Amino acid sequence: METTKNHFFSDMSVMLGRSMRHITRSMDTIITVCLTPIAMMLLFVYVFGGAIKVGTDNYVNYLLPGILLIAIATGISYTAYRLFMDMQRGIFERFNSMPIARSAALWGHVLTSLVANAISVAVIILVALVMGFRSTAGILSWLAVAGILALFTLALTWIAVIAGLSAKSVDGASAFSYPIIFLPFISSAFVPTESMPPVVRAFAENQPVTAIVDALRALLSGQQVGTNLWIALAWCVGIMLVAYIFAMRVYKKRV
Amino acid sequence: MEKAIQVKGLQKSYKQHHVLKGVDLEVEKGSIFALLGSNGAGKTTTVKILATLLKPDGGTAAVNGFDVTTSPENVRWSISLTGQFAAVDEILTGRENLIMIARLRHLKNPRHVADDLLKRFGLTGAADRKVSTYSGGMRRRLDIAMSLIGNPQLIFLDEPTTGLDPEARIGVWNVVQELADSGTTVFLTTQYLEEAEQLADQIAILHEGRIIVSGTFEELRKQFPPAKVEYIEKQPTLEEIFLAIIGKKEEK
Fold first, then answer.
1. CATH number for the domain including B147?
2. ABC transporter domain spans which residues (chain B) (predicted)?
3. B123, B76, B74: which is closest to B98 by C-alpha?
4. Of A6, A88, A94, A251, which to mutate for an interface test with B (greatest number of B Cβ within 10 Å)?
5. Domain ranges of chain A
6. Cβ atoms < 10 Å from Cβ of B64
7. Where are the beta strands (DSSP E) in A44-169?
8. B67 backbone dihedrals φ, ψ, rounded to 5°
9. Which site in A163, A189, A241, B247 is 20 to 30 Å from A92, CA atoms measured?
10. Which run of H or E residues covers position B185?
11. Residue among A78, A98, A109 with most chain B CBs within 10 A, to mutate
């Protein structure tokens, strides 16, 4: 008798193919994910931007990293939603009563989240280019940007997995993302932290988004990244590991 | 007779709620077994334990000779589950659903398998439509078709006809009968007494966490007072009228 372990990758690719079809057949989710961050970018650049002093004449360049993080935080709420619907509709029961690798269905969702968010990020960067975003970053810096964004997506995706698996309603499955979407506002994403009152500033400078935004901004503008890169990576990997452990614990309990 | 399922003293609780209080049952290979019970009697819990989705708190359960707690993987190779809610992917087409399951079962020719089943279940015309456009009966047929992929020795059908119209229900009954004729063991749960009477070789009634009676329909009938003979005019049932009018009775 065959063991299911041998088929982990082929099972996972079937699962990935399945949820990618879900995305391509409901392109509205991609558009919804992109719409709010793009609207915010327009609002901040063309309405508030004139009054914000960030020490650079290109506010789009300053803004883009934070906008990308907001887009990813919005995007992962759909991962939680898709997972929740799978749990509800009984298709997970079918998968789990079949001789396939138990976590293949879950990994399918995680990989799908990564691909879907990569698409949204690409769309937003294109819009930013139209709005005047310019970067002096070389190939290596762009790779580093992609890597940080991918790690950030994975970290949030595993949080989304916890929410999707343990939610009792559709609203609950996606509500967890609101605080995460809000985090960039209390960071260096829109304005320099120096302009904030002491308590807020202390929070802003020590929360993950600021480190990640600063690292992305430095990479995109071709400056020295310094320790921010390592702080950003440490946050992403740390959140990812903790969320992964909890998500797997919830998953084992549910199936 | 070889046993497809042997269950002894099965226990399961959800927090304070004691659902199964020692269930004993045996199912013979190649037979149709119906587990009857009202809503909340524990039918679905029993099926989930036998299909390795839930772990029992006590007792033993063996499916096709494999213990569900110690060798769940072997159990999974030999069964298929059609759950209470049609476990189909709404966004995929009928054909894609079947191909997906065939690929997960690592079969040689998934497209061919899908084509055969579409034909057999009368879904060829709807094969390339999204399942979200299917009727309840079509969805159920697709659901059962997905369960047949890989020819499992035993199929669980948890309330396969709940929510279906009479026509679709007869369609499902025919499929179940064909399965049994081809040697597959069928374990079905139902709230409809008529369904058990029509289909099942063995019937067991689950009530308040225990099997209170089991046997063939004939055996069950003998345990109760003999039938009185009465002469009444035989009126057609509404179901018979309905089916006669739409003229599709017994058609698959």
1. 3.40.50.300
2. 5-233
3. B123
4. A94
5. 4-254
6. 18
7. none
8. -75, 135
9. A241
10. strand B185-190
11. A98
The encoded tokens of residue A90 equal 């009984």
For residue B47, being part of any structural domain is answered with: yes
A96 contacts B53? CB cut-off 8 A: yes
Order of all β-strands in the sheet with B154-158: B79-82, B154-158, B185-190, B32-36, B202-207, B210-215
Mark yes or no for CB contact A90/B84 under 8 Å. yes
Residue B247, judged by CB atoms within 10 A of its CB (0-12, 13-18, 19+), counts as exposed
Residue B233 is assigned to a structural domain of this protein: yes
Dist CA A158 CA A166 (whole Å): 12
Asked if the structure places residue B251 within a domain, the reply is no
d(C-alpha B118, C-alpha B138), whole Å = 11
Asked if the Cβ–Cβ distance from A18 to B105 is below 8 Å, we say no
ipTM of model: 0.81
Give percent helix, percent strand, percent coil of chain A, each to the nearest 5: 80, 0, 20
The count of structural domains within chain B is: 1
Nearest chain B residue to A88 by CA distance is B85
B80 neighbourhood in chain A, CB within 8 Å: 97-98
Q: Which residue, among A37, A35, A28, A30, has the nearest Cα to A70 in the 3D structure?
A: A37
Chain centroid to CA B154: how far? 10
Among left, alpha and beta (phi > 0; psi -120 to 50; other), residue B129 is beta
Q: How is residue B130 annotated by DSSP?
A: B
* Closest chain A C-alpha to B144 CA, distance in angstroms: 11
- List the Cα angle A131/A137/A142 in 5-degree steps: 95
Token representation of residue A104: 């293949």
Order the strands of the B3-14 sheet from edge to edge: B17-28, B3-14, B58-63, B66-67
Tens of pLDDT, residue by residue over A28-74, are: 887 888 888 999 999 988 888 777 777 777 888 889 999 999 999 99
- Cα B125 to its chain centre, rounded Å, is 25
- Give me the total of CB pairs closer than 8 Å, taking one residue from chain A and one from chain B: 66
Our measurement of the distance from residue B148's CA atom to the centroid of its chain's CA atoms, rounded to an integer in Å, reads 12
- Cβ atoms of residues A102 and A96 within 8 Å: yes
The identity of residue A175, as a single letter, is A
Residue B15 identity (one-letter amino acid): K
pLDDT in tens, B182-216: 889 999 998 888 888 888 999 998 888 888 888 88
Confidence class for position A255, pLDDT limits 50, 70, 90: low
Give the residue numbers spanning the domain of B191.
3-246
CA distance B244 to chain A (A): 35
Given the DSSP bridges, would you call strands B185-190 and B154-158 parallel, antiparallel or unpaired?
parallel
Place of tokens 């690719």: A13
Q: Could you tell me the end-to-end alpha-carbon distance of chain B, in angstroms, rounded to an integer? A: 32
Instruction: Name the average pLDDT for chain A.
Output: 87
